[in-house]
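Posting for a labmate who doesn't have an account.
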Amino acid sequence: MTQVRELRADAPVADRARLAPGRARLVERALTARRSRVTWGRRSPLLIAAVFVAVTAVVITATLLAGGHRAGREGTPATAPGLDLKGMNARELLEFAARTVEKQPPLAEPRADQWIYTKETQEGAGADFELEKWLRYDGAELASYPRPGADDPGELETTELNLEQLGDEYDDRSPREMYRFLATLPADGEGTLEALREENALVDDKSLTQQGNDYTEISVLLDAYIQPPKGLAGLYRALATMKGAELVDHLVEDEAGQYAVAVRFPEPGREGEKHADEWLLDPVTFEVVGERAIEDGEVVGGNAYVVKAVVNEAGRRP
């Protein structure tokens, strides 16, 4: 790792001049959007919902390291090594994924004053655009450029959030709170479901079944910026208990040409309308790398994380 860091120490930041100026306008509109699903951080008036968690996601991302460095691959294989997706069902795949991630060493927790940097490409309605944001690990501040993607993005702007001081009136949680709750989850599915129901971080939707509310809670945690391996394994095994899950029998490709294993789940409360979430898993590490929305069998929107990392100050890129 030391040699890799030294090798990349002088690497310049990717040139953003190639990005179309029109993307800036699209981004500005995206920042005012709201996510329809009711999840942690989605119901409060804060813009954290629109900024950091996309309506849906199609993601192939680098592993988030507490040391502030990017890990992972520049590309992903067209086949999942050692797996025959045509011969597996969703439950079997999720168990395989759980066994894979729980073998990984625990992540070192970031300091409270460190920042989570994300660069993502959102897609939908026939247009793509990039967002670049910094969120403090303790949820105290959010930073971004006013004109992302433009030749002159402007001066970095910082907004005070204080997510951990909002109290129970709001659903927003800081990355630190999400990480620490995930770290308490057991590695088995039933135990994870029991822990989620006991915590009951989201008020149950009376119109949904117990499974629908369980799935909503799990979805929030799958969106967490840092996921301890054991907790993620528990989420996978909890997902494996959900009815209606389907494994796509081939790797799916995002617009960047990267591949992922896809598992579909009916969207709670809308099963009859042929709406589904499609969670994407890295075909080698089996970490969560995104989500996208499916309607009548077609992808209707999403976003792709280009980079996700921990850095020491807002405005810094890995």
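Reply:
Got it, the structure tokens are right above this. Confidence is low (pLDDT under 50) at residues 12-74.
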